[in-house]
Structure formats: C-alpha cells, structure tokens
User: Which sequence fits this backbone?
C-alpha cells in the first residue's frame, strides 16, 4: 500500500512539474511571438479598417469603476480619432440580462466622441478566443487592430495570427501592479489555455450569420 501511495505521489509531482513547465513555456512563447506586434505608441499602429475592443466590466465586484475598462475606452477613442481605424467592434460578455459589456462600451465610446454608427456590437465575445475568431468568421475581418492592455493584447494577437489574421495590438494604459495582481496572475494560466485551445481546435461558443461592416 505504501508503495502504491509513493508511486501516485511521484506521478502527481511529475504532472505538477510538467504543468509548470508548460505554463512557463506558453507565456514565454506568446510574449516572444507577439512582442513586435503590440505597442503603446499610436504612431506604431498600422492603418486598418477595423479595431477590436476586447470587453471587460465597467465596475469591479465592489461597485467601484474598473480602470481596465476606462483605460481601454480611452485607447480605442484615441485610436479612432487618430484616423488609424474607421470602425470599432466592441466584443464582450452579454450572458445575463443585467450584464452587457458591448453596450456599456458603446455608450462609453460615444461619450468619448466616437460616432455610434462606427461602433459594431458583438454580444458573444465570452472569451478572447471567441472575440478574435468571430471578428474573422462573423464580421469578415482579416486585418485588425486589437485594443486592450498589453498582457491581454499579447494573447489576442497570438490567437489572431494563429487563425490566419493580420493583427496588431494597441496597448491601453495598465493599472498599478497591486490593483491588477489577481488579473496578472490569472493571465499566466490564460496564456497556457490559449495554447491548449489551439492544440484541441476549440471553437467559439456561438457562430451565427455574417454581419457586414460597410
């Protein structure tokens, strides 16, 4: 019995070490591959018809404003006003009646001077993979400027390129490291999950009819 327990423990340790190595490798690989294609500088961003603004909630769980959300709104607004993009797909979670990231982003963008008819709603962007692949499959965009924080853009640009798209990431301002600690820790696992999804051919949760962007 002791021998069996010892062997089980060894297998557990091996799997744990393998998992840690995989997560570390996935993070290094995605950052390395995406690094040249993300920037905080608008001058570095290539012109594209469409920007893809990745969703997050406008409020934190405690009811205070979410700095990630408002920093992304500013970045998207600045990018549009610079003339680098003509339309913005706002893609996020609308899984419940009282939670609607795309409409919250649309409202915030219009308040920041982006015309409403230049904003395209995608209510099925439940994950980064869904948002990126749907931009191609539903909205027929093969060239995108993705707008989010740097850590998120690295993963989104990686997924876009692996799905045959030309993508560049414009980085919104980050939040301070203490406030974003939980998000940054979660991102290590999210980058590993991105590789996992590619290996197993995971598709977006919802498809749908194509939507034409003028």
Assistant:
């Amino acid at each position: 019995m002791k021998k069996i327990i010892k062997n089980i423990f060894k297998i557990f340790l091996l799997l744990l070490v393998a998992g840690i190595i995989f997560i570390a490798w996935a993070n290094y690989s995605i950052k390395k591959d995406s690094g040249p294609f993300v920037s905080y500088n608008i001058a570095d961003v290539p012109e594209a018809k469409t920007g893809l603004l990745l969703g997050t909630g406008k409020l934190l769980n405690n009811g205070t404003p979410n700095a990630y959300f408002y920093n992304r709104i500013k970045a998207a607004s600045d990018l549009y006003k610079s003339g680098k993009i003509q339309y913005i797909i706002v893609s996020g979670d609308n899984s419940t009646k009282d939670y609607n990231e795309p409409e919250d982003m649309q409202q915030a963008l219009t308040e920041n001077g982006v015309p409403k008819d230049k904003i395209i709603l995608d209510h099925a962007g439940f994950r980064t993979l869904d948002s990126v692949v749907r931009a191609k499959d539903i909205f027929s965009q093969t060239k995108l400027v993705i707008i989010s924080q740097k850590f998120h853009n690295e993963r989104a640009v990686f997924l876009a390129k692996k799905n045959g798209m030309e993508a560049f990431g414009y980085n919104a301002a980050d939040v301070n490291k203490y406030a974003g600690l939980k998000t940054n820790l979660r991102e290590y696992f999210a980058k590993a999950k991105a590789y996992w999804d590619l290996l197993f051919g995971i598709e977006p949760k919802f498809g749908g009819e194509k939507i034409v962007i003028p």
About this structure: The first helix runs from residue 2 to 34. The chain has six helices and six strands. The radius of gyration is 19 Å.
